[in-house]
Structure formats: C-alpha cells, structure tokens
Amino acid sequence: MDKYECIYLKENMSSVVGKMAASTRSQVLFLYRLLMKESSKFPSYNYRTYALRRVRDAFRANQNIEDPKTVQQLVKQGMDTLDIIRRQVGYTPTHRVHEGE
C-alpha cells in the first residue's frame, strides 16, 4: 500500500465513520488490520511486540461496546494512533550527535 492509497483510505474512512452505517464492524476490522500491519514494521523487536500487544489488548477490551458514539470516538482514537505509529516507524536515526565535538 503506497502513501497516496493510505491517505485516500484515511480520508474515505473518516467520512464513512461520520455516517456510522451498518458496516461499522468492517470499518473497525479494517482499522485493526492497518494498526497490526503498521505495528509489525517496527525494526526493534521490543517496540514491535509492545505495539502489537497494545493494539490487540485495546481491541479486545472494547469488543463489546455497542454505543455508536463511543465506537466513533474509539475509531477516531485508533486513527490518531495509526498516525503516530506511522511516524514512529518512519523515523530511523542514521547517526548520533556526540556532545563536545
């Protein structure tokens, strides 16, 4: 999935989430898959396993929520988390600056 496809999906999902149609389950599953896919891209084993575990635990903890407003808020929070994960995965320091040099 390239950058433009991700942007399109995010914009499309944001507009669809606002409507909260009967396909809420598919939207949540789509978000879950995206979060798991992006979390698995962390180069560090510790960060990767932590992120995957947090995503899994968050979705399990909220699996019985049926209130549409609450689900909408959680999806928004998930999209924000997805943005954070993408920024963190994309950030790879190439060198360290030593003070005193």
Automatic annotation (TrEMBL):
UniProt-listed InterPro entries: Complex1_LYR_dom, Complex1_LYR_LYRM4, ISC_assembly_LYR
Pfam families reported in the protein's UniProt record: Complex1_LYR (PF05347)
CDD domains referenced in this protein's UniProt entry, alphabetically: Complex1_LYR_LYRM4 (cd20264)
Organism lineage string: Eukaryota, Metazoa, Chordata, Craniata, Vertebrata
Domain of life: Eukaryota
Protein family (similarity comment): Belongs to the complex I LYR family.
PANTHER family on file: LYR MOTIF-CONTAINING PROTEIN 4, PROTEIN C6ORF149
The protein's name: Complex 1 LYR protein domain-containing protein
Residues of the Complex 1 LYR protein domain: 27-83
